[in-house]
Design brief:
alpha/beta, 3 domains, 12-stranded mixed sheet, 13% strand, P-loop_NTPase, one-carbon metabolism, nucleotide-binding
Length: 556
């Protein structure tokens, strides 16, 4: 099927209306029209209503021999609690590339958690005239991926406590009867997944009846140390009173009480697995290898030891497919995964990026966003995501605001939910220049990976020309390929055309290969120090408590 452009001309008004009002003022195209832009036919995706579709991984197999487009990551300077507009800039840049510069483009974004959506931070669909729509569906259930993660995570949590309960209350023989129930004439068999544990134990027998009493004991008892369990239950809303709870208080649990708690769903390791996986079989292996705690003998216990790796994969079988959506101006978006950057790696999925790069083809653009500041999100994009995926970015965008630079220059504290101090609403070039040391460090760090860096200054109505010029001068002095003032929040893609041109030039003029900050074969201690030194630290000191928590290799 040939591709066709399905683009929308925005009717912008000033002052900029509320995000929800802008989103609701635009009737989205049917998602099949967006799919046509990417040469996707109906057998390449499953519809989820009129405006969302799951793109199947089989697309990757079909396009295996075709070339990739340019790969661009959007990070930011160290943000204020209000955020500096990375998502908005990512969307605005793509609207500029697709709707104004006639490029094939796909935006790759994380799925937002409902915790921040219903908190002070709000949603993550972008803002103003640079948004993903339908905004409400994007910010809420979408196609159920986070709910699948919640179910899989909590299935594993239930399996852990159930296994501890049964091992505490039953004999070895009774446990074997549960795991390998006898059939006619006393015959037993191992389930396929059990051979993974048998191999781990060094047992090569294929018939449960051939196990010695000692081998039966080793096989049926995981002997999980309750104090070592790191796997917690999750839910996808903020509920502070569930952070620490006591379980096992029912009379049938026979006094097996322990303290645990809830995390938010996107903090689950399963979310990180989804974001880093490259195929269904790869996801199956990663899920099975997740460690939930240790045995009382100090051996790590995995999901496959509990026999639930396959069940987790079944719950995640649809979640592995990215969700196709659209921007306000009708350019395609792939939404997939949403790990936090402070506890995981803070980037959308590898499979979404791989699919997108094939769909746009040579000369096209895939723009993805890295969470938090570039020191966390972009660093992990390079050292973790690109290392696993084998994908090579050509350009990194660093989003900056006058507001954040003033804060880094010594301005008053910025607090979410409170009015900004006057210092942020009136011209103060000296404060901006003082804060540009933060921007400069991000530029230097990001350039070290071998990519060209373009600074996008997300302009607010209170910013002055002198302040904006100060940022541009500082960015270029620090080694940025270019620095562009953008008004995509107020004007949509039209306000990011210069940014799009700069990004295209940056992609076309890469002169270095991708370089990682550290090799994989060094100790945890050395990796931490490599990252810290890149931030400007002279070294790292470790408390006794930290040393006790980390593996012995850390001490080498």
């Amino acid at each position: 099927m040939g591709s066709s452009k399905t683009l929308r001309k925005l009717q912008v008004v000033s002052p900029v209306p509320a995000d929800i009002d802008i989103a609701n003022s635009v009737e989205p195209f049917h998602i099949s029209e967006i799919a046509q832009q990417l040469n996707l036919s109906s057998n390449h995706y499953d519809l989820y209503g009129k405006y969302k579709a799951k793109v199947l991984l089989s697309v990757l197999d079909e396009l295996q021999g075709s070339g990739d487009g340019y790969y661009v990551v959007v990070g930011g300077i160290t943000p204020t609690p209000l955020g500096e507009g990375k998502s908005t800039t990512t969307v605005g840049l793509c609207q500029a590339l697709g709707a104004f510069l006639d490029k094939k483009v796909v935006t790759c974004l994380r799925q937002p958690s409902q915790g921040p959506t219903f908190g002070i931070k709000g949603g993550a669909a972008g803002g103003g005239y640079s948004q993903v729509i339908p905004m409400d569906e994007f910010n809420l259930h979408l196609t159920g991926d986070i709910h699948a993660i919640t179910a899989a995570n909590n299935l594993l949590a239930a399996a852990i406590d159930t296994r501890i309960f049964h091992e505490a209350t039953q004999s070895d023989k009774a446990l074997l009867n549960r795991l390998c129930p006898p059939k006619k004439e006393g015959e037993r068999s191992f389930a396929d997944i059990m051979f993974r544990r048998l191999k781990k134990l060094g047992i090569s027998k294929n018939n449960p009846n051939d196990l010695t009493p000692e081998e039966v004991k080793k096989f049926v008892r995981l002997d999980i140390d309750p104090e070592s369990i790191t796997w917690r239950r999750v839910m996808d809303v903020n509920d502070r009173f569930l952070r620490k709870i006591t379980i096992g208080q029912g009379p049938e649990e026979k006094g097996m009480v322990r303290e645990t708690g809830f995390d938010i769903s996107v903090a689950s390791e399963i979310m990180a697995v989804l974001a880093l996986t490259t195929s269904l079989s790869d996801m199956r292996e990663r899920l099975g290898k997740m460690v939930i705690g240790n045995s009382k003998g100090g051996e790590p216990i995995t999901a496959d030891d509990l026999g639930v790796g396959g069940a987790l994969t079944v719950l995640m079988k649809d979640a592995i497919n990215p969700t196709l959506m659209q921007t306000l101006e009708g350019t395609p978006v792939l939404v997939h995964a949403g790990p936090f950057a402070n506890i995981a790696h803070g980037n959308s999925s590898i499979v979404a990026d791989k699919i997108a790069l094939k769909l746009v083809g040579p000369g096209g653009f895939v723009v993805t966003e890295a969470g938090f500041g570039a020191d966390i999100g972009t660093e992990k994009f390079m050292n973790i995501k690109c290392r696993y995926s084998g994908l090579v970015p050509q350009c990194a965008v660093i989003v900056a605001t006058i507001r954040a630079l003033k804060m880094h220059g010594g301005g008053p504290e910025v607090v979410a939910g409170k009015p900004l101090d006057r210092a942020y609403l009136s011209e103060n070039v000296a404060l901006v220049e003082a804060g540009c040391v933060n921007l400069a460090r991000h530029i230097i760090n990001t350039k070290a990976y071998g990519v060209n860096v373009v600074v996008a200054v997300n302009m607010f109505s209170t910013d002055t020309e002198a302040e904006l010029n100060a940022v541009r001068t500082a960015a270029l002095a620090a080694g940025a390929f270019d620095a562009i003032v953008c008004t995509h929040h107020a004007h949509g893609g039209k306000g990011a055309v210069d940014l799009g041109i700069a990004v295209q030039r940056a992609c076309e003029n890469v002169t270095q290969p991708l370089k990682f900050l550290y090799p994989l074969d060094i100790s945890i201690k050395e990796k931490i120090e490599a990252i810290a030194r890149s931030y400007g630290a002279s070294g790292v000191e470790y408390s006794k408590q930290v040393k006790a928590c980390l593996p012995f290799q850390f001490l080498l």
